[in-house]
Amino acid sequence: QVQLVESGGGLVQAGGSLRLSCAANGGSLSLWTMGWYHQAPGKQRELVAAINSIGGTTYADSEKGRFTISRDNAKNTVYLQMNKLKPEDTGFYYCNTYGATLNWGQGTQVTVSS
Predict the structure, then answer these.
(1) Are the CB atoms for 81 and 66 separated by under 8 Å?
(2) Which residue stretches of the chain have pLDDT < 50?
(3) Are 13 and 112 contacting, i.e. CB atoms less than 8 angstroms apart?
(4) pLDDT for res 1
(5) Are 6 and 93 in contact (CB under 8 A)?
(6) Cα–Cα distance list, 78 to 20, 41, 43, 101, 114 (Å)
C-alpha cells in the first residue's frame, strides 16, 4: 500500500513563498496523475493543482499564476511551489492521486499571516 508523506509547510507572511513536497513509500507514483489538495479551516478538501504522468498541469482558478506543481519521478516525489501566498491559503495541504484513490497522508500545515 502506497504511503504518502507531505512536508514543507510552515508559517509565512502574506506575499511569501513555500515549497511543499510529497514523497511516496511502498509504490511508484510515476504513472498516476497526482494532485495537491487544500483543506481550509472548517471547509472541505479541494483540489488546487494536478500534474499528469508526462508533466501536463492544471490549476484551480485562484491558484493560477501563483502555484506551480511539479514532479520528480526518479525521486517518487511531487512538489508544490507556492508564491504570493494569501491568508486564504491557510490550511492543511495533502497530495493524492487525481480522484483521491490512495489513503490520505497526514498533510502539511500552512499558515499565512496578514
Answers:
(1) no
(2) none
(3) yes
(4) 87
(5) yes
(6) 8, 24, 24, 16, 28
Q: What are phi and psi of 60, to 5 degrees?
A: -70, 150
**Nearest CA to 2 among 27, 23, 19, 22?**
27
Which single residue is written with the C-alpha cell 508559517? 11
What 3 state SS string does the chain have? CCEEEEECCEEEECCCCEEEEEEEECCCCCCCCEEEEEECCCCCEEEEEEECCCCCEEECHHHCCCEEEEEECCCCEEEEEECCCCHHHCEEEEEEECCCCCCCCCCEEEEEEC
- Residue 1 is which amino acid? Q
